[in-house]
């Protein structure tokens, strides 16, 4: 058995390659077809951490010769994005084209190098760090950039594109159009924009002219089988074994999030000092899982606190806290999936139904910490994960019992209590009801 490092197998904070699990064939085909269709632009969207980047990178590796990734950051302008792409193409134009087996048109190479020398290194660095730069060398037009990408047989991945805002977004949509038109000359030329949002239009704002030529790919959260496959693949590569009960629990705790699954499995291995493929099979049971969860929560309580605060934030002076009421009612339902109509038992929600509906949808977005996830097929909502759900429960309970503060960060007692109620939740011994505000 080939030895693998544990942190290359379970990779909670980077795209997975060693244990990549194929996604639903429909999404898979949609993406692969779009990649293989010259001129088709691609928008990939879905909740944070659902596996967008992993899916795109794995499919690109299977289908594409070259690609360039630009990671978008808050405050980046259209010009910053263009320069980043231009800068990264350097690899193709720097080494002599023959050494890479690429036949790049010498005229284009010359143009590339001319533009490159007109942007001094200093300027490139400056533009990368400073916001609101709106100057590009005049020769660096979208068409030129298209030629540079096209000649290198590369497509362009714009990661976290939802972070780009305003007119900069519109300009990228125009760039997509240019790339689309230029695909007559270059089959591979395309832009793949990835964003952690719930609609494709929130990623890129494009008009109707472009819409038929953009493939909108929604990556859903994982189902239990997919999560189980991650665990099974990890077991094989590392020569470890999770007991059936442990595996079932990891699946429940993951709530469809591959990120949580990778993190819990990694914690279990690290806690037992399994840093690489074991020579002798190692067995894990729920005691190991409990320790791993404790570690997970110790690291996460800060995030849980800030996500919860984000979710229930209301404008100053407002007395009604509708987001809180919605979360409370959702907890009281004791259902995994619920619809908006399930919540109207609450008088407050009933009387403010338009506003409440708007807020429940906001609760599925980054604006309110993606507290809920929404499934378009069933038109139902659910808590993003059990950790958030029960953290909210604990907070409400403490507020009600008039404990001085809501759960404090890194408070061991909180972690212990949280673990207990999540355990109850998993075993469906949910014994709580929170009174109306
Ligand atoms: N198909 C898959 N098979 C195995 N692991 C996966 C798969 N998809 C995602 N993962 C794992 O899940 C985690 C999140 O994946 P990824 O970064 O691709 O998600 P994302 O949707 O791009 O997240 P973000 O919104 O934060 O950019 C990573 O740890 C990755 O290793
Ligand atoms: Mg990503």
Walk me through what this model shows:
It is a single chain. The chain has 437 residues and is α/β, with parallel strands linked by helices. It folds into 3 domains: 22-218, 3-Layer(aba) Sandwich (Rossmann fold); 224-301; 311-426. The chain has helices spanning 6-9, 25-35, 52-63, 78-88, 90-94, 106-118, 121-129, 142-151, 167-182, 200-203, 208-211, 224-238, 244-254, 258-271, 286-312, 322-333, 347-351, 353-362, 386-400, 412-426; strands spanning 41-45, 66-71, 154-159, 191-195, 214-218, 240-242, 282-284, 372-375, 380-383. Helix 9 (167-182) links the parallel strand 3 and strand 4. The termini are far apart. The model has no long low-confidence stretch (mean pLDDT 88). Bound molecules: adenosine-5'-triphosphate and magnesium ion. Adenosine-5'-triphosphate is lined by residues 11-12, 15-16, 19-21, 23, 48-55, 196, 230, 258-259, 262.
Tell me, what is the CATH class of the largest domain?
Answer: Alpha Beta
- Strand coverage percent: 5-15%
Distance between the termini: 59 Å
Report Rg.
24 Å
Q: Could you state the order of secondary-structure elements as H and E? A: HHEHEHHHHHEHEHHEHEHHEHHHHEEHH
Tertiary shape: globular
Relative helix content = 40-55%
Number of β-strand runs: 9
């Amino acid at each position: 058995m080939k030895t693998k490092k544990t942190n290359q197998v379970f990779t909670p904070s980077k795209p997975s390659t060693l244990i990549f699990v194929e996604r639903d064939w429909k999404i898979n085909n949609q993406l692969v077809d779009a990649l293989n269709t010259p001129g088709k632009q691609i928008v990939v969207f879905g909740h944070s951490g659902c596996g967008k980047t992993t899916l795109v990178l794995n499919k690109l590796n299977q289908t594409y010769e070259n690609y360039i990734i630009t990671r978008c950051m808050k405050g980046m302008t259209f010009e910053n994005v263009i320069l980043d792409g231009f800068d990264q193409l350097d690899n193709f134009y720097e080494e002599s084209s023959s050494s890479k087996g690429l036949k790049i048109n010498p005229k284009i190479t010359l143009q590339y190098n001319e533009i490159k020398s007109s942007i001094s290194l200093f300027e490139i660095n400056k533009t990368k760090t400073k916001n609101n730069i709106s100057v590009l060398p005049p020769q660096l037009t979208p068409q030129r950039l298209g030629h540079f990408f096209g000649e290198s047989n590369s497509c362009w991945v714009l990661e976290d594109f939802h972070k780009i805002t305003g007119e900069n977004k519109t300009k990228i949509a125009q760039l997509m159009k240019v790339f689309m038109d230029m695909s007559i000359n270059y089959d591979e030329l395309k832009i793949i924009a990835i964003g952690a949002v719930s609609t494709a239009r929130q990623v890129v704002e494009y008009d109707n002219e472009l819409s038929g030529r953009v493939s909108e790919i929604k990556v859903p959260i994982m189902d239990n089988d997919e999560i189980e496959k991650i665990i099974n693949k990890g077991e094989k590569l590392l020569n470890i074994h999770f007991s059936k009960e442990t595996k079932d629990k990891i699946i429940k705790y993951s709530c469809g999030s591959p990120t949580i699954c990778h993190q819990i499995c990694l914690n279990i291995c690290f806690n037992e000092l399994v840093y690489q493929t074991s020579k002798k099979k190692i067995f894990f049971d729920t005691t190991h899982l409990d320790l791993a969860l404790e570690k997970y929560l110790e690291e996460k309580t800060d995030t849980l606190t800030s996500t919860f605060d984000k979710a229930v934030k209301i404008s100053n002076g407002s007395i009604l806290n509708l987001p809180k009421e919605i979360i409370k009612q959702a907890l009281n339902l004791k259902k995994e999936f619920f619809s908006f109509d399930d919540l109207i038992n609450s008088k407050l929600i009933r009387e403010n139904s338009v506003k409440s509906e708007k807020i429940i949808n906001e609760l599925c977005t980054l604006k309110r910490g993606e507290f809920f996830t929404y499934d378009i097929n069933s038109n139902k909502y659910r808590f993003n994960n059990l950790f958030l759900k029960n953290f909210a429960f604990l907070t409400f309970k403490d507020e009600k019992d008039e404990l001085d503060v809501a759960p404090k960060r890194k408070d061991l007692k909180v972690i212990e209590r949280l673990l207990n109620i999540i355990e109850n939740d998993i075993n469906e011994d949910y014994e709580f009801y929170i009174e109306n505000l």
